[in-house]
């Protein structure tokens, strides 16, 4: 039933395309408040789809729309940048799709003890700096599963559900958020590069790690904490209204 609904939503986005159920496969099974991740692939399309239809009703009414909206807006703000998926679609308030990027997560390359040229990390550094110039922080680049080495050896960033515009925050917090992103670049550089991390960048990473130990949201990005809080508040308000109506 869920898969049939997804195919109908895709058909609305691509009315001239012929979709087949056998081309839709589960990549990652979501649990509770996590989306199920699908991949749809045929001769013309290769898409990643994140969908919350399976989630409990209160997740579908609270966290899921926030997460989908955040990812869609993050991709929209970075449109046209090489290193980010070029096509993205909001299929419904609780489902988003974007072009699949062929590549290997840096986390997997670390596990395989692979190395990458320094040029990859310089490109990655420039990509993050360009993202910041668009007024956006990712907030989860220290998770090396969110960065791919594409088939042509270039860095690509995925999973934008933690993305946020940082201008609304105090300057000290803006600096911390940009630092979180850049420390992800240098963390990957230190683990995977075929040459050592330059001293100045190693000092930057060390200093950020020291500050991060005292950060109350360590390991839990700001935007996810924000969305979680909004979801809980909405759930409580809904329960109160049901009680008195």
TrEMBL record:
Q: Quote the catalytic activity from the record.
A: L-threonyl-[protein] + ATP = O-phospho-L-threonyl-[protein] + ADP + H(+); L-seryl-[protein] + ATP = O-phospho-L-seryl-[protein] + ADP + H(+)
Q: Where is the signal peptide?
A: none
One Pfam family here: RIO1
Q: Where is the RIO-type domain?
A: 60-178
List the EC numbers from the record. Answer: 2.7.11.1
What class does this enzyme belong to in the EC scheme?
transferase
Sorted UniProt keywords: ATP-binding, Kinase, Nucleotide-binding, Serine/threonine-protein kinase, Transferase
Name of the molecule in the record: non-specific serine/threonine protein kinase
Q: Which organism is it from?
A: Pseudoalteromonas rhizosphaerae
